[in-house]
Automatic annotation (TrEMBL):
EC identifiers of the protein: 1.8.1.9
Organism: Gregarina niphandrodes
SUPFAM superfamilies: FAD/NAD(P)-binding domain, FAD/NAD-linked reductases, dimerisation (C-terminal) domain
InterPro entries tied to this protein: FAD/NAD-bd_sf (IPR036188), FAD/NAD-binding_dom (IPR023753), FAD/NAD-linked_Rdtase_dimer_sf (IPR016156), GSHR/TRXR-like (IPR046952), Pyr_nucl-diS_OxRdtase_dimer (IPR004099), Pyr_OxRdtase_I_AS (IPR012999), Thioredoxin/glutathione_Rdtase (IPR006338)
Name of a matching Pfam family: Pyr_redox_dim
Annotated protein name in UniProt: Thioredoxin reductase
Length: 536
């Protein structure tokens, strides 16, 4: 078979590039193949986002927000009898999985109507010598096996968009066998119940957040800090809010072993012996399926579910990259690309999560794929711009940001050349309903009300006060952050924000009346009043 473009990977980036190239008249073949997770989870066309990422996550996030509102706001807002409502995990999973199946189907239909040939097989790039033997005069050759038969496609160019998969450290006894990852959680047929989440970035905190508000007992094991790379003040605010809402955190802690209760524990007792910890305690018959987790500090605790969210690894292991001459980054194991998504192998491009140094976000993979297709087949020359990409962490209070963190702004411009404006407050529905702290974080019986949930923060570069960092912690920050990202792209300044009339009563209006700078040392927490506004 011959093609203009072979796309390896039918996820966010690969599908977007395949459809755009076909629209521009190219003959396109797209491969997608899912390796089952160690726990046996597998799924259909569409890649990480639709099957085990953004889409199932946002449905669970919304279920969690409902739980949060029911726990804190339903009764004061006049809804009685909500105590009678029960949450059924399996019903949520059913809704999530049915929706994913619809999307899998519509993605297949989308490829068909775009004229892209879809092959459900694992593709491998052929090495140069094999390529010569196969008779290809130019371009690249990709091989695959379908129904036991080995086949080839020759293409003018190849796009690698194979994404990544969660990683579980092999040096933690029991982890690979007993832990689940985000590949399994959204289709888990049993309730997660008491859960340990290992890791402290996007995936860990989002999973911990939604599980907490689905009313499970959740602990996060943090090796160093939460949300590395994000604005520190905002990351710490998110952690505080999560704590006050009931998520527990074990800080500067690491897991050393997992053991299903009742099983012999040779590896773990060796490890614990080294540390001098008592391995006999807590291993009592406390429910057949429980997992005993041992930590580096010597702590031991039983959990029903352990979710590992300690990062992802690119799916390049059996792709034939080395033989095909594709340079990989030695530290990340990801493909090195230039600003036009070109790898070191002529005719081979890469986009999305598989690329070194690119943000691992769906719209990034999609846009990079569409722009590449236009450059290859549409005579365009527009490159993908990787700066000022907005993102949101859904915990389930949402942290949206675009541009620089305060730390990065200081490093880039110097402390004296930036001004930071801050405003902390509670949105009206939260303060009117007097949301309460989780019992575990109350200092005493009078310590009830939550710390203001909202934090609005902008970082301006002097002297024109151009905004170089936008940070918003709010119930619906995802929606507002998109609009501010557009404004940042258009060169937004503090004067522009001040010149805009706010919409009252919203959280977003806080950005249009900010007066307290970090430099002033004044408190930036609203004394009372009305959410993001200035009345009262
Ligand atoms: P993928 O979507 O991973 O697609 C790659 C495809 O290639 C997969 O189907 C894979 O099985 C297949 N493949 C691999 N090797 C081969 C081969 N040899 N042959 C054929 N096929 C192969 N991003 C956001 O923007 N917002 C969010 O809210 C968000 N939430 C997330 C939540 C979770 C839990 C996770 C895990 C990720 C989330 N992301 C989110 C990130 C987002 O899902 C990814 O950035 C995006 O899916 C990357 O797209 P991609 O095209 O690079 O790869
Ligand atoms: P990250 O690579 O962002 O973070 C990994 C986390 O695991 C860090 O907290 C790290 O801690 C910790 N960690 C790493 N190794 C270990 C270990 N051996 N033991 C204990 N902890 C460890 O990975 P994620 O899986 O959270 O996210 C991957 C990407 O997916 C994100 O970068 C994001 O782009 C994308 N995503 C986007 C979402 C969104 O848009 N809302 C949601 C979810 C994912 P340390 O800081 O100490 O290294």
């Amino acid at each position: 078979m011959e093609a203009d473009l072979v796309v390896i990977g039918g996820g966010s980036g690969g599908l977007a590039a395949a459809k755009e190239a076909a629209r521009l008249g190219a003959k396109v073949v797209c491969f997608d193949y899912v390796e089952p997770s160690p726990q046996g989870s597998k799924w259909g066309l569409g890649g990480t986002c639709v099957n085990v990422g953004c889409i199932p996550k946002i449905i669970m996030h919304n279920s969690a927000k409902l739980g949060q509102l029911m726990d804190h706001s339903a009764a004061p807002l006049g809804w009685s009898g909500t105590d009678g409502l029960t949450f059924v995990w399996q019903d949520l999973v059913k809704t999530v999985q049915l929706y994913i199946k619809q999307l899998n189907f519509s993605y297949r239909r989308g490829l068909r109507s775009a004229g892209v040939e879809y092959i459900n097989a694992k593709a491998t790039l052929l090495a140069a010598p094999e390529r010569a033997q196969s008779g290809a005069k130019s371009g690249r050759v990709v091989e695959y096996t379908l129904k036991g038969e080995r086949k080839e496609v020759r293409a003018k160019c190849v796009l690698v968009a194979v994404g990544g998969r969660p990683y579980i450290p092999r040096d933690v006894p029991g982890a690979v066998e007993l832990a689940v990852t985000s590949d399994d959680l959204f289709s888990l047929s049993r309730e997660p119940k008491k859960t340990l989440v290992v890791g402290a970035s996007y995936i860990a905190l989002e999973c911990a957040g939604f599980l907490t508000h689905l009313r499970y007992d959740v602990t996060v094991c943090v090796r160093s800090i939460v949300l590395r790379g994000f604005d520190r003040q905002c990351a710490e605010h998110i952690q505080l809010v999560m704590k006050e809402q009931g998520t527990k955190f074990l800080e500067h802690e690491q897991v050393v072993s997992l053991q299903r209760v009742g099983e012999p524990d040779v590896a773990a007792s060796d490890l614990a012996g080294d540390r001098g910890a008592d391995t006999t305690s807590n291993t009592t018959a406390d429910g057949g399926d429980k997992i005993l987790v041992r930590f580096a500090s010597g702590r031991e605790e039983m959990f029903d579910t352990v979710v590992y969210a300690v990062g992802r690894r690119a799916c390049t292991q059996s792709l034939g990259c080395e033989a095909a001459g594709i340079a990989m980054h030695p530290a990340s194991g990801k493909i090195v690309v230039d600003e036009l998504e070109q790898t070191s192998a002529p005719g081979v491009y890469a986009i999305g999560d598989v690329c070194h140094g690119r943000p691992e976000l769906t719209p990034v993979a999609i846009k990079a794929g569409e722009l590449l297709a236009r450059r290859l087949f549409g005579g365009a020359n527009e490159p993908m711009v990787y700066t000022n990409i907005p993102t949101v962490v859904f915990t389930p209070i949402e942290y949206g940001c675009c541009g620089l963190s305060e730390e990065d702004a200081i490093t880039r411009y110097g402390q004296d050349n930036i001004e930071v404006f801050l405003f902390g407050f509670n949105s009206v529905p939260v303060s009117a309903c007097h949301w309460k702290k989780a019992l575990s974080t109350r200092k005493d019986e009078f310590d009830l009300d939550v710390t203001p949930l909202n934090l609005s923060k902008i970082i301006c570069k002097k002297p024109d006060n151009k905004i170089v960092g936008y940070h918003c912690i709010a119930m619906n920050a995802g929606e507002t952050t998109q609009g501010y990202a557009l404004a940042l792209k258009c060169g937004l300044t503090k004067d522009d924000l001040d010149a805009v009339v706010g919409i009252h009563p919203t959280d977003a209006e806080s950005f249009h009346s900010m007066t307290i700078t970090r430099r002033s040392g004044e408190s930036f927490m609203a004394a009372g009043g009305c959410g993001g506004g200035k009345c009262g």
